[in-house]
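Q: Got a minute? One more chain.
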Amino acid sequence: MRALFIGGTGVISTAISRLAIKKGWDLYLLNRGNKPDFVAEGAKILQADIQDTLKVSNLIRELQFDVVVDFIVLVPEQIERDIELFSGKTKQYIFISSASAYQKPLPHYQISESTALANPYWEYSRNKIACEERLMYEYRKNGFPATIVRPSHTYNETSIPLAIYGKKGRWQVIDRILKGKPVLIHGDGTSIWTVTHSSDFAKAFCEIMANPAAIAEAIHITSDEALTWNQIYDRIGDALNVRVKKFHVASDFLIACNPYFEGTLAGDKSNSVIFDNSKIKRLVPDYVPTVRFDQGARISMNYMLSHPEVQIPDEEFDKFCDRVIEVQEKAIAQFRQENG
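A: Always. Here it is, folded:
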């Protein structure tokens, strides 16, 4: 069977690409060629920017696909582009949405695919919702064979789940841990978060590909491992053989200090997320996540420590952390002084 992945070299898509080829898929990757080191061995490359629809149309003119997966769609306009490009060219189109699209605050502690979609805090999530709605309309009107997949926090060796980090990536948090400096965690660190290793995600995803029961369905794929944020950081510390000094700060305060965090905190991580995975297990009866986070954390830390190119300093974020901690500690000291 033949598949086209748009992107194919990201945190989620690299693992899927590798497994799809292992399973015998004839895989094409359409991307700009910016990450050659992450191209799965055996994949055929169609080098282009997906925004260049004329060039893409010419590249795929003689090709038909069993599955097309777009890993990089963010806004409805890109869905319109894909509908135009791939109508009549594929038996299944898979859109990568996001579990952050689920209603915030959550109406129930456990999330299923029937949980309402609404996120007033994060434009990213609202755009994903709009993309889903456009695809389902196109399915109802014209039979466009769409499947919606909602990942939650999926990671691989190049990344690690963190509560708060800067715009230059995760390394600065790891650097603070290694140097014994406190790291910021929203709330009291006891909200529950679900993390999924990309290799586990790929196992379920590859069985959704060319699965007729998945057409016109929305499905989330996560592990069954739910940890508090305190536990997540403790496991990262264990992987580094360092005790993590955790500094807890109210989400509202962090957002007030930097509105950039409103989406990722109020719209996502400050909410406890526990997923009902019965739907994906009905579609893929053999799906069993096997990578525990303590194992995944060691893999990620070993990679980050041995690859200097990912050790990108973020002085601005480091100063932000120090300043937040300083202000909080001063406020506590002043309150105690004034109130005996």
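A: The mean pLDDT is 96.
Q: Perfect, thanks.
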